[in-house]
Amino acid sequence: MHTSTSKSLSLAGALILLLAGCTAEAPDPKESEGFRSGSITIHPLFVRGDSGGVGTEVISRKPSSDGGFRLDFSEDEVGGLGDASRAASWSAAITSTLLAGQPLEGRYGFQITGAIDGPSAGALKTVGLLALERGQKMLPKVTMTGTINSTGTIGPVGGIPEKLKGAAAAKYTTVLIPLGQRNTPDADGDQVDVVREGRRLGVKVVEVGDVYEAYPLLTGAKLPAPSSDGDPRLGDRPYDKVDAQVTAALGRYRAAVQDFSDSGTAIRSSLQQTGVVQQAKTAADQAADLRKQGLVAGAFVQAQQAAALMETVAAGADLLTPLQTQGLPGLETIIDRARDTAPTEAAFSAFLDSLGTYRPKTTSDVEGLVNAYAGAFDAYSLLDFASARIDTAGKRVQSADGDALQAALTDLITAVLYLELAKAQISSAQAVFEVGRDNAGGALAEGVDLDRIGDFFRRGADANYAAFTTSGVVSQIADQQGLSTDVVVRGIAAFDTDVAIAAQQKAVQPALEEYIDAGSDNGAYAAMAYGLSNYVRNQLLVEKYYNNAVLDKNFQITDVQFDGALGHAIDLARDQLGAEIDALTAKKATPVIGVATYEAAELVSDGTPLERFQALGGYESGYVTARLLGYLGGWIDDSADG
Fold it and tell me: Are 144 and 127 a contacting pair, CB within 8 Å?
């Protein structure tokens, strides 16, 4: 559930000062305050083999001729900018735009000298673009390595000892590294304290957690960090509305518990071993506890999760009953019933049709509509993912025996649960629509190009997905085990519905686009929902699986490598969402789903590794969605930093 998306300006002449450090051009006084053109030179660190060095990259920005968002890449070597570096450039351009509250348009140029690939210059590119926007220079002989995340946190990278030596050889005085990477392996696998190594080399090494910490060290100027006045709360009318939905969801949960208890003992035992029943009970208990505290928005999120999970196992038990009553011959009945997705597809289409007739008038209406569309698309993607797995597992079951048969049965049960979760997701999306729409909110600003907003977030989603599949844990496992990245992604998807949805939405995108382009008046909002939800989800996948998640042999997360960095990311995302809720509340447009996300995330922010990632995803989703509402209401400049 998603709880968890100006036209022609005069162009200033570019003046690039290629000095030992990085400089920015003076702004054209004739240029609109909403956009600042210019160029800046950064010096990213790189590794080749067992040695490192310092490169040169010129970043430029100017208004686009059509008001769109475009990136241009220039290189003087074949493969100078690899796929990972291109994805990092997209992430930097999009993240800096959102953090600075700038118009979602512009033409960005990335000109590389030599060949540098990888995402590790993402944070440096982001700071460079923020400095360019603010008309400030970057300090000479200071640089940074680290990936960039959507909230401005800086992610881990490899090769820091080698990069440090390269920086020392180039006479750099300061190198910034991601928080938690003081002790990091070198090319030989030996742990190196890079702060001490830096002292030996005459380079100051500083750990930084986000661009707000890095900015003054790279520019000498302050970048104000977001802050919130306090915990957000709902008004009386939305409180009552949400509370009624909590009652309904907990009623769904209890009915599903009864249905599950009526199923066969063997089937119940098998499904209880998946842990879903306990997850549902925990969510229901948390919903009840939050409700007692008056935190009904957070209770709504947990109650929806409890209902969806319990309905999933109850329906799964019913579907799998022939396995208990008939044994293996019952598999054919199960597979035939599972393949009949027509009723679910009809429910999906009917819900989309109802969304297509809704006419949003305020930013709050858009919050409900966009989240409902996102939930519906997730349901469709899960349905498609599960259907494909049921076909594959069914064929394996019919031809396997022994351990292979047990593995195939496990895959079949997983696919059946995903299939039923897709159905439950539609009900949850309907509940989200009910609580999110028709609340007090500001009028939508005139002249906002909805299609371009959708395109903006869709490109960010594609960049994040590319980073997820081509870097970090996924590519490492693929290389180590001789597997394709697609196989590894499918393996992780068996335990992480976010991965399953992200992978499948790429496959079903043409079908969704066909619906969006079919003439629905709300097609632009549907496209916006697709782009925004995937942007946030794919970003979370990067933060989970890019050098932070510790996976077992079955691709399940057992721990995190950089606990401090994850905690820092959660704290920053919480502050950002809180600040955005404060800004919208000041406009009498409190985002109901945003408050729900905030309260629910608070509950699990100190829990298990999986729960902490869940909290991070919730905060980030709420923040980006609230930022979107600021754009739609025409208020974004009021809440923009700096």
Answer: yes
